[in-house]
Amino acid sequence: MPQSGPSAEQIEMPNSVSSSGPNILLVDVNDEVARQLQRSRELPSFAKAFTMGTPHEPVLGRGDVLEISVWEAPPAMLFGGGQSMDASLGAPSGGSITFPEQMVNSQGIISLPFTGPVNVAGRCTREIEQDIANRLREKANQPQVMARTIRNNTSNVTVVGDVTTNGPIALTSKGERVLDALAASGGVKQSVDRTTIKLARGNRVTSLPLSEIIEDPAQNIYLRPGDVLTALFQPLSFTMLGAAGKTDEIPFEAQGISLAKALARSGGLNDDRADAEGLFIFRYEKPTALNWANPPTPTGDGKVPVVYQVNLRDPSTFFVAQNFPIEDGDVIFVANSPAADLQKFLRITVGAFVYPTLTLINATR
């Protein structure tokens, strides 16, 4: 008999063993199985993994470039000449001076006249201004200092992946968040529904669908220097085979899809052929996905071949199907019902033997 795949009875045969691999495990899908699979796939959200935090106060680091300006109250004693030390800055003003741009050296230090080396690494501009003013207090008349960051080379985050412009984004006192950095990089190139954002901070890495970050403000956390944001376009899909309304490779969104939605997108079951008790999901599963009665033997890549069986004749299964997660690369197979196979057998036998025989008898008459 021609077939589009194995029957439900063939898949259900005990001790189904691959000739070159471990046992293929058959698991009946129920509410507890669906909940265990959901828990095993839950990743820490940005809010839980990193907390919302507070806006980052930019501090200076090695390689940053500063501009220092000093004002002196009249009668000016130290900077009374008002001469700028950088001719490109324009006409000098009385009682003030703007020093040439200073790059923080490898020791985190800049050097200024009358102050000596000033340690600026790890300090904000407000602290640097106060330190320089204290150093000049015995030399200048009521000095006022302004420190301005010209080039920020350390307090930034890196945005890479499927965005318009890859590169660093400087952090400011405003407090940039995840969506701010993505917008500053020109936004993502692909559909929001199929883009995942990965945030790496130190040794911790967490991923979330971009649509979830947009919908939940708690996930749009403040960024920190050194963070790396990666926009990943993930064309996830499952394959529908057998007695389904449509056999095809069907894409789905980055936030995932349930079995109920997967069946709906594939046109449901073929009412003339499908065995409602013979719906199977073929998947290479993580060994820790379920609480196995006996620890399974994984394959060489650390996965376990599992076949999940779903009985759609049980009305309660439709509630379970709303929580059962479909994974990228899953194969969903709907077996033919025995009645459909019988109809096929009768059609073939009648067409191959009865009709030719009747034709021959009529011809001989």
- For the residues shown, what is the average pLDDT? 83
CATH class membership of the largest domain:
Alpha Beta
CATH superfamily of the largest domain: Outer membrane lipoprotein wza domain like
Largest sheet geometry: 6 strands, mixed
> How many domain units?
3
How much beta, percentage-wise?
25-35%
Which series of helices and strands comes N to C? Answer: HEHHEEEEEHEEEHEEHEEEEHEEHEEH
Would you give an account of this structure?
There is one protein chain. Residues 82-94 have low confidence and may be disordered. The protein has 9 helices and 19 strands. The chain is of the alpha+beta class and 365 residues long. The radius of gyration is 35 Å and the shape is rod-shaped. The chain has helices spanning 8-12, 31-41, 46-50, 125-136, 178-184, 210-215, 259-265, 317-321, 338-364, and strands spanning 25-28, 65-71, 96-98, 102-103, 109-112, 116-119, 144-151, 156-161, 167-170, 195-201, 204-209, 228-233, 236-242, 248-252, 257-258, 274-285, 304-310, 325-326, 331-336. The chain folds into 3 domains: 8-42 and 236-342, Outer membrane lipoprotein wza domain like (Outer membrane lipoprotein wza fold like); 46-55 and 155-233, Outer membrane lipoprotein wza domain like (Outer membrane lipoprotein wza fold like), CATH 3.10.560.10; 65-151, wza like fold, CATH 3.30.1950.
